[in-house]
Amino acid sequence: MIDFGRRVLIERFWLRHLLFALVLFSVWEIYANIVDEPVLLPGPAAVITAVVSIVVDGSLIPALLESLQLLAIGFTTAVALGVFFGIVVGRYKVMNRTFSPYFNGLYALPVVALVPLVLVWFGFGLLGRVVVVFLAAFFPILINTYTGVRDAPSDLIEVATAFGVSSEFGMLRRVVVPAATPFILAGIRLGIGRGIVGMAIAEVYLRLGGIGALISSYGAVFRTDFLLAAILPLPLLGIGLTKLFGYVEKRVRYWRVSATA
Fold first, then answer.
1. Helix-strand-coil percent breakdown of the chain, rounded to 5?
2. Distance in angstroms (rounded) separating the CA atoms of residues 191 and 173
3. Is 1 a residue whose pLDDT tops 70?
4. pLDDT tens digits for 157-195?
5. Cβ neighbours around 246 below 10 Å, total
6. What is the pTM of this model?
7. 249 burial class (0-12, 13-18, 19+ CB within 10 angstroms)?
8. Does residue 32 sit in the same domain as residue 124?
9. What would the pLDDT profile of 32-82 be if each residue is shown by its tens digit?
10. Concatenated DSSP letters for 168-233?
11. Measured distance CA(144)–CA(125) in Å, rounded
12. Distance (Å, rounded) from C-alpha 107 to C-alpha 147?
């Protein structure tokens, strides 16, 4: 009975989303036909036609794969270093006092403001673009990991010490990192969205390849339908990856509750 009720709620949830999407895109299409200004606002039908066109002519898929390669390298590096420095700065007071003001200041700095400096330092090739993606995704992961480590329950640390966990590595592996895992996963989920923004900024700024090059080229000739078609994979990618990490986060939370029950 509980499973049936839950399934009904899920079906109603998706039905509401579907109805809202149908209304939204119908109003958009009607408005685009009435205004009849395709340069300003092409309708959904024109955008879908443009998507099919750039898929068929072979320009979208290679650009998307190039962007995904850039995102994978930059985001993976951001996860590794963000979690590492978050644990170090959150766990040790000397490191916290030394580095946390700089991390907080850089976190508040827009990534787009750093793009010219990054490109001067690291060049206009793959490395420079990877650094932009890294900087965009690094700080949410770092801050969330730092918060999770700082908020590790002191009573668990005392219990672990009482049961013979004396080494720092053992304390990190058995208490601190498991307690901070929900925060780490939340930071990764936030970081993936920021990483996609950084990827788009780097590619649009450089116009050397990927989705950003398509966006720049179509925007330069005022092909708004193709411009929206090139932009469309970015939010879809962000939604898909965010949902994926959100699912992993829920599974970890469920595992933690089950383990402590």
1. 85, 0, 15
2. 23
3. no
4. 666 666 666 676 777 777 777 878 888 888 898 888 889
5. 13
6. 0.80
7. middle
8. no
9. 788 776 667 787 888 888 888 888 888 888 888 888 888 999 999 999 999
10. HHHHIIIIIHHHHHHHHHHHHHHHHHHHHHHHHHHHHHH-SSHHHHHHHHHHHTT-HHHHHHHHTH
11. 30
12. 14
Angle at 67 between CA 215 and CA 118, to 5 degrees: 85
- Distance separating alpha carbons of residues 232 and 240, to the nearest angstrom: 13
Domain that holds residue 14: 1-36
214-224 pLDDT, tens digit each: 888 888 788 88
DSSP E strand boundaries for 54-134: none
Instruction: Please give the structure tokens belonging to residue 94.
Output: 């000397």
Q: Are 136 and 15 within one domain?
A: no
Mean pLDDT of the chain: 80
86 and 5 assigned to the same domain: no
Whole-number Å distance between alpha carbons of 91 and 151: 10
Is 141 found in the same domain as 13?
no
| Whether residue 196 is found in the same domain as residue 144 | yes
> Do 124 and 188 lie in a common domain?
yes
Residue 173 and residue 198 in one domain: yes
> String of b and e for 21-41 (b: at least 16 CB within 10 Å)?
eeeeeeebbeebeeeeeeeee
Q: How many residues does the chain have?
A: 261
What CATH number did the domain enclosing 161 receive?
A: 1.10.3720.10
Extract the tokens encoding 176: 């601190």
Q: Identify which of 22, 58, 64, 27 has the alpha carbon closest to the alpha carbon of residue 236.
A: 64
Overall domain count for the chain: 2
pLDDT of residue 80: 94
Token representation of residue 105? 């200041």
